[in-house]
Amino acid sequence: MNHDPNCLFCRIIDKKIPAALVHEDDHAVAFEDINPKAPVHTLIVPKKHIADIHSITVSDREIVGHLFFVARTIASKKGLDKSGYRMVINNGKDAGQTVFHIHLHLLAGRAFSWPPG
Ligand code: 5GP
Ligand code: ZN
Description:
By secondary structure, the protein is an alpha+beta fold. It has two helices and five strands, in the order αβββαββ. The protein has helices at about 10-15, 60-75, and strands at about 20-25, 30, 40-45, 85-90, 105-110. The relative contact order is 0.21. The site of zinc ion has 6 residues, from helix 1.
């Protein structure tokens, strides 16, 4: 597994930094965002260190698709299938990416505006 010892999310995956884990399997983890932007704010993260969308390779397609499967499983467990939810990936500087290890934000528990800010 490709890990970066200087990466915050790799350190959470390695359990070197604590996080409120809601899911773990061979390829992904999910944990609660430390600074939630909505009543539900969960991050779904591949165990493999992939810095951003443009670093995804052909062999990563299954891992990246798996993130959506984990997200919908968590959304079901949290009872969000009726109310709805938003899934977000901030990629790069202009989108506000701050942690350069790709992650899917699962946000719910309030209404979201569109277009996003
Ligand atoms: P980005 O801005 O890269 O799309 O999202 C990074 C997210 O990681 C932010 O929502 C931020 O609150 C969250 N975050 C940053 N540091 C930590 C941490 O140490 N633990 C947890 N659980 N979340 C973090
Ligand atoms: Zn990483």
